[in-house]
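Please describe the entry underneath.
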Amino acid sequence: MPPDEALLDADIQLRLERISLEASLQVGPGQVLALLGPNGSGKSTVLNALAGLLKLGAGHVILDGVVLERPASRTRVRPERRPVALMFQDYLLFPHMTALDNVAFGLRARGTGKAQSRERAAAALERVGLTEVAAARPGAMSGGQQQRVAMARALVTEPRLLLLDEPLAALDVSTKTGIRRQLRSILRASSAANILVTHDLLDAVALADTMVVIERGSIVQSGTPAEVTARPRSRYVADLVGVNLLQGTGRGTVVELDSGGELHAASGEHGPVLASVNPARVSVARERPGQAGQAGANCWRGTIEAVDLLGDRVRVNVAGPLPIIAEVAPSAVGELRLDDLGELWTCVDPADVQVYAR
């Protein structure tokens, strides 16, 4: 998105003791940007910088056409004066306050009168379906209720930028689905720019218009959820999506792998490439299959490292000249004695190899 069309235009450059961060983000009105990356990559640092809790070393934060921070011109709006709401992972509700007073706190801190603050807080609780806990304190609420109270507190100030730091991480699986659905409805109705930090791919796919992946302080991939998941560009993204990712050099339909050996594909590329293979398309056998021709070239002998149950499938990690993960039906564990570990052949049809430029 061009910066002049974005509600939020941010160029974040700062250096801390543990990380150097350089990230440019643009988010339009009502859009949701999901920020993903491994621990320590800089995700929460981005949120803190946008909220004004960390000072930029260079760059800018522009929201609704207003410069909130630009070190070059010594412009910096204090955190409490920014139209920004930050919802922390652990919610940080005041334990001695009722849900209504927790939600009203942000308004009171901005100078809104007590009666009007409580009226708006009650409407915000109704919006998230929690009128019945208005008089309850956090200790008497479930995790899902606390999450929604924190969300109501973030929304009641009508921020132009909403920052959500792992908002669903503390919820159990049975609660998370319903809360995710409600959060999606709230965000879709918002006119703010919304940024969601998450480790959960399902949260990102369900809630976000754009995914941005950050590693070691730099953006390594961005696009729609479909674009990012279809063509992962780092080991982290490949693991997140659940595919095998290999690097090499394309020579037509043959990829010369950086790790050694060759991989055959149905279609070709030239130059530095990435190749992804869905584990479900990797076949396994105790003896080398009697394949001939090009398909038989994509067979490797390795050693079983681990066998793990994943829903209705079993993941088999195979080490060797070409480390690869295969997904098989549970019945294959007994048929092939996979729990005994030992040697295993893995094969991939060239038609199941996706090759794209690095």
Observations:
- The longest strand covers residues 262-277.
